[in-house]
Amino acid sequence: MTMAGKRLTNTIRTLRFMAGEMTQAELGTRVGLTRQTIAAIEQGKYAPSLETAFRIADAFGVGLEEVFRWQSEGDGASG
Q1: Which residues pair with 6 in a beta bridge?
Q2: CA end-to-end distance (rounded Å), the chain
Q3: Which residues, in sequence order, are bridge partners of residue 63?
Q4: Of 12, 15, 26, 70, which one has the fewest beta carbons inside 10 Å?
């Protein structure tokens, strides 16, 4: 998702791995979303609502900024 040279990135895949290799389906169940929606968010194809973003962060027991970041397009880092 891009806007004014910035894009929303996330660390969901890494956090799932660190949480005992949690599947997208398991995360979806915890936050009330489908596996497909989790996959779309994880791949940056869909930006979650603020409430959903907080639910995802809460599922991992971390703060919102540990899951989602607003990055400049030119910044090669990915989440």
Answers
A1: 3, 72
A2: 13
A3: none
A4: 70
Distances (CA, A) of 28 to 10, 58, 74, 75: 16, 13, 31, 29
Q: What is the DSSP string of the chain?
A: -EETTEEEEE-HHHHHHHTTS--HHHHHHHHT--HHHHHHHHTTSSPPPHHHHHHHHHHHTS-GGGTEEEEETT-----
CA distance 47 to 76: 19
- Per the prediction, the chain carries an average pLDDT of 91
Measured CA distances, 8 to 19, 20, 69, 74 (Å): 22, 25, 6, 13
Question: 70 and 4 in contact (C-beta within 8 Å)?
Answer: no
